[in-house]
Request: fold
Amino acid sequence: MVQGTTFSMLVVAGNLVMYIVCGEVSDRVGFKYVDTREVCYMLLYSFACIFNVILDLMVTFAMAAKTMRGLNMRTYHGTALSEVETFLGLFGTYAMQRELASNLWWYCIPATFLIPFLCEPILSICVPLELKTLIVRSHPGMSCNSAEDLLASTPMDLSRYADILLNLELAVLIFFFPGGYTVTMFLGLCVAHIYIYAIDHYRVLRSVPRCVFASMDVDWWAQWMLCIPLGFLLTCATFKALNNGRHGDLSTTLLLELCVAAFFLHMAVHTLLLLCVVPCFGIKNLVPRPETYEECSMKRPHSWFSSNVVHCLRSQFVYGHDPPVDHSIVGKEHLLRFNAEVGQFFVDVKAQSEDWKRQIRFRATLSDVGRNIRMLWHTLSANPSFQRSASDIGATRTEDEGTQRTRSQSAPAISTARPPAAAEVPTKAASLEVRRTEMV
Reply:
């Protein structure tokens, strides 16, 4: 258990490092659009994690082979593992299959499927909010815009595509090994994805200010990335079909070449289907809605004019519009003023702000409950009757334990003596008479 927990923590730390590195690389490339940045991150993170898993399984295979040969372990037919020289023969032994499957299972559950997503709401929402609140509270000279930028929620990204694809790819790899881990692996995958859906549902509705993705590029690349787990399934089927002894003794090199060829053949077919077949089922001849600019502007506050700061300044200082085109900011759309001459038709009321007093009252209530529990404990500890009752309970428990220990020690010694007859048992009246006679 300790070894598995330590391994899980190492996997979580490694995935976190790759998450940060891939995100930093995607940001520093300098893409023009956010969608392109998300595609780059998804590809980098997915391939980095898969490479990490394959490397980890290779290291586990090498270490397990040396350990099992040192322990003189044998195959099902009684052959020592030190005498098995081929890769296929050693990989097909039950001991090696069990070791690799166990390593993959601990890699997935809970290191990849559960722990990162349990920590995500705390590390991405709660902790940053508390730290930024302390920063704003400790700097009274901070401007309102800076305070709002600090307290704003984390923007929405599409990194969840990479997380789901990675979980699916790891789960599919379990088919290379015995079926004892298959049910628990996919059960953990289902539970993890239900939890991920609940977290994202809350995040989109309650935490993210807004998100706009104008193209389907990330979704198309995510569908293309599905060729990897499906290719793993085809590779596993090819490996199981050709390594069952019915096709003769295939060499390790030939079997691996066939498996790799099946994987890349599937990738090619998958890509052709996405490029040539899937577009045939799309919506064709889409008729634009008969909607004027005024109708659209009444529904959407952010336009090319209101989102362009230079145009807003030009409207105020160059053209002298009254009122000018106001700059549209997320959360402050109600400040836009109506002016049909400049094409500004959006009108709204102020959104309901969060009740920070209610949160403060909730925290104060929790602190009061904790304080009352501590005061009650100190009061009971200082009460002599409570101390006496506690000591009596402890003494009674000690006496009971001693009685049970005595009974357990004397239980094996079974007495074979004949029990006394009824006439031989002294009664209470007889014992009192003997005691009265002695006193006289």
